[in-house]
Amino acid sequence: MKEGRASALFPIAFFLVIFLGSGFVTGDFNAMPAIVGFLIALFVAFLQDRKHSFNEKITIISKGVGDDNIITMCLIFLTAGGFSGAVTAAGGVDSTVNLGLSILPPGVAVAGLFVIGCFISVSMGTSMGTIAALAPIAVGISEKTDFAMPICIGAVVCGAMFGDNLSMISDTTIAAVKTQGCEMKDKFRENFLIVLPAAVITIIIFLVLTRNGSFQLEDELPYTIWQVLPYIVVLIGALIGFNVFLVLIAGIVLSLIVGVTMGTIAPSDIFRVIGQGADGKGGVMGMYDITVISIVVACIVSLVKEMGGIQFLLSFIKKRIRGKRGGELGIAVLALLVDICTANNTVAIVMAGPIAKEISDEYQISPRRSASLLDMFTSVGQGLIPYGAQLLSAASLTGLTPYQIIPYCFYPILMGISGLIVILFIRKKA
Fold it and tell me: Which of 77, 212, 257, 404 is most buried, by the most CB atoms less than 10 A from its CB?
């Protein structure tokens, strides 16, 4: 086993400094694309490692990128993007939103927004898409009732983070499962039981806070169950345990059949919607960024590990924690801190995943538990940081500031508390 060296972590630290620094200096945390920062960090790692020749370094990073989990993760990203593009073009998103709102009981509008957000985000696999779909509805509910805008959009953000953490086609779930080496269905079951109390308490809080208000939808909300069917098939197939590629491909084919049959997808456009989505920004191409980032991060981690950086972290953590409980707490803290630094929970999981895997192996933590903790605690950070894409998007769509919405982001807070309770007080065999 290689000797640990703190200096080997310099490329990662350098990335965090320039990435966060550019955000603070410009006031825009999207000023530097993450891939640019990671490429610079990879260049720094190449310069720092003087023990190996250039060709030897290429061999090292090639082995890292060629890992089964990295390749599988990237392929699932692309396939999930294809499904998302096809089902959106088929009208699945609109029908799913309208279906949820149509069954919304009067008088529980805000709590209903959270529940519908949970369902849509689990189905769509994207918190950003859920916020974009439901934010206008939240604005309408606020305008027609005495509910404050921040609490309405806060319910939407809470629901969006629920599915971002649990959905079978969410890039965070894919990254967590593949870096930890477990099955999606096992991670879902483990994760769902942990976050369920947080979701239930969130519903209760919204019901109590809005108990004196009421709301009745007046506009017609057309939907068809056929357009929702692809989401249901993918969700059930993944839960049963079918191969994820087969499930996603089945979802793509079913979406295309529904879209062509109902006239929402022209036969000549079936390949375009898979590749680019309905708006030209989604589909397989919409997953290019995170796929390339995953590859470059794997390169960086390979060199950092070769120089002793991963071993240093493991030794550092091992000296400060004891046993399985301490290992789980270490994974949770690691995930949260990396997300706070990167402002992207998928990138955070890709970065922290290899380290979390080493910790879980060291302390005999089951892969499904480590995957759940990674996904949960990066989502905790992502749902609360004011410079994260979710809160910035919610704020821009409603004219609010992230700081006005954060006090009503109950679910991410409760999810973190629920996770800590499970770590500290509930023991479960691997």
Answer: 77
Angle of helix 149-166 relative to helix 171-180, nearest 10 degrees, comes to 40
Q: What is the 3-state secondary structure (H, E, C) of 4-31?
A: CCHHHHHHHHHHHHHHHHHHHHHCCCCC
Q: How far apart are CA 189 and CA 302, in angstroms?
A: 31
Sorted by sequence, the CB contacts under 8 Å of residue 8 that are 6+ apart come out as 48, 304, 307, 308, 309, 312
In a domain, 1, yes or no: no
Total of domains in the chain: 1
Q: Does residue 430 sit within a domain?
A: no
% of the chain beyond a pLDDT of 90: 27
Q: Residues 388-417: what's their mean pLDDT?
A: 86
Domain that holds residue 127: 6-425
What are the angstrom distances between the C-alpha of 255 and each of 95, 270, 281?
Answer: 13, 10, 18
Q: Which pLDDT tens digit goes with each residue over 331-367?
A: 998 888 888 867 678 878 888 888 899 889 888 899 9
Q: Are 5 and 307 in contact (CB under 8 A)?
A: yes
30-87 pLDDT per residue, tens: 678 878 888 999 999 999 998 899 999 999 999 888 877 678 778 877 887 888 789 8
Q: Which of 5-9, 73-77, 409-413 has the lowest mean pLDDT?
A: 73-77
User: Which residues, 6+ apart, have CB-to-CB distance to 327 below 8 Å?
Assistant: 317, 321, 359, 360, 362, 363, 365
Does residue 141 lie within any of the structural domains? yes
Provide the residue type at 408 as one letter: Y
**CA–CA gap between residue 421 and residue 196 (Å, rounded):** 13
The SS3 of residue 409 is coil
